[in-house]
Structures are given as C-alpha cells and as structure tokens.
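Need DctP family TRAP transporter solute-binding subunit's 3D structure for a figure. Predict it.
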Amino acid sequence: SYLPSRSLSRLSCALVGTAFAAMFATSLQARELSVSTVLSDAFPWGQAAQKWADLVEERSDGELTLRVYPNSQLVNGDQTREFSAMRSGLIDLAVGSTINWSPQVPELNLFSLPFLMPDEAAVDAVTGGEAGDMVFEAIEARGVVPLAWGENGFRQLSNSSGEIDEPADLEGLKIRVVGSPLFQDTFSALGANPTQMSWADAKPALTTGAVDGQENPLSVFDVARIDQVGQNHVTLWNYMNDPLIFAANQQVWASLSDDEKALLKETAVEAGAWEVAMTREQEAGRLADIQERGVTVTELSDEQYQAFVDATANVYDKWIPRIGEELVEAARNAIEAQ
Ligand code: X2X
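Structure prediction for DctP family TRAP transporter solute-binding subunit:
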C-alpha cells in the first residue's frame, strides 16, 4: 500500500477513539437516569424517590443509577411543568404529584375533587382498582409511562387568622394553592380568595403574610415547619388526597432492556408501597408534634363536614366533564364497594 503506515495507524486510532466515545456516551446515558421530585428527602416524597434509587442501584449491581433532583430544580421551580418536561425528555423519570401533572393530564383532577375520598381505604380502592388503571391509561396516552403509586397524603387546611370549622370562616382569606385550576374553583366556592403559586414561593408568601393560609399534608406542614411562619391553626378535613406517581419518559423506557424495565417497575412498586405505609404510620405522631408546638387542631363534626361538602358541590358540575364521567363513576363505585 502507498498509504504511509503512520497515517494509517493515526486514522484507525481516530476511528476507534470516536467509536469508543460514542459507545461510552450511550452507555453513560443508559446508566444514569434523572428523577425529578418537588420535595427533598427531608419529606416522605423525596424519600420515596431515594428509596427507588437505592433499590435500583442495589439490584442492578450498579449498572443502572437513578440520580434524584429535588425541589423541582429540573423545571426551575415550576412544578406544573414537570410532566411536560418528562414527556419531552428533559427529565428521564419522576415521582410526581397528581396535582402538578393535572394541567397536562385532566383525568388526574379526579383526586382533587373535594371530599371524594374520605379515608385511606377509599384512596386505595381508587388507585388499586379500575379507576387507577384508567388514570394510568390516560398518562400513557399523553406520552409518559406510569409505573407505580406513592402518596403525598391527605391535604389539611392551615391559616394564621383563626379556627376554621365552617365555610364562612374562610370568607375573604387569602389561601395559597398549587397552580392547578380546580383549586381556584374549590376555594372560590368556599368564599376564600385563592392565590396560585409554586411551592418554592409558598413559604416566603406565608412568612410575609402575603397569604393567610395554605393546604398541604401534615408531613409537609411538619417537616417544613409551617407553624413557624405563623400558621397556628390546622383544620383536619381530609378534603383531598394527593397520590404520587412514579413514571418514565417514553423514549427512555423504550431504550431499556426487558430486564431493566422489569427492575425499574418492580422497584418503583416496592418504593411506593414502602413510602405509602411510612407516610400513614407517621401521621399520628406528626399531629401530636404539631400540637405540641402550639398549633390549634380543629376536627369537624359530621354536620360541619357536610357543610363543606355542600358548599363545594358545584366543583363537580364543572369538573366531571373534564375528568371524564366514566372515570369518576369508576372511582365512586370503588369507594362505595369497599
Ligand atoms: O406545592 C405543594 O403544595 C406540594 C409540595 O404539596 C405539591 O407539589 C403538590
């Protein structure tokens, strides 16, 4: 050959180098997947994602790594964009709230219908049955692969101005709500003045008194020390439960081997069940701690509860067509049958 051997070896070196770099990049991408969460591992929600990551790490012998990015940082704090970011591939995986994904998946508003699910058994009947399957199909139809359920928890009402045991007590109160339109309707129906903002903005707004109240599970209230920013009244009204969903971007999912898919699914189901049980077990202790720190806790009589149910009935008229009559029916049947 008249090609000088030196340049030949240089050429082959370059070729091998490029091929190696490409292989390396592909394998790195396949190995480390991002997981988005809104809350950090100081909260059960973040612990659910970390548990998932730990189980995957352990059972894949380090072949697959999940790296958790808390505080909605992959969407610059805008939690209602998390689903879109996962669908488009900016986020590989997420453990997300039904509330935050509901702007893109209207069926998820099911869980925010006020006073639909009175207790944990009702939540389990919905997520674990036909309604839950329908919700997963709706997520899949919108380009994301759902894997398992977790739980942020029953959302309770807090405020800085006084005890709330009837809708009239909410009259004119500024309440921070998540940026999901159904909440605007629920709190308007109760005579309050709802203000939508992200979780990142919520604590500053409570601190300055820009808002008078907020609603979140007791675990969030407790860990974030919401009582220390003047929220010294909590009403236990179980008005909605906020399940978490473990999910994956569709292209990422399709790129995994069958074994990796099985591993991700099985560990998500396990981490979810672990977190749901833990969240529920901790509830009573958290309530006691909150009361010990001086928070007034209000429980509702059956009549008081019914007054809130009646005041928010029109939310159903507006939202059932958006959620889907069949899905709401399936959820109601599951709740009644338990
Ligand atoms: O923003 C909230 O209130 C939170 C943290 O509970 C959710 O992400 C739904």
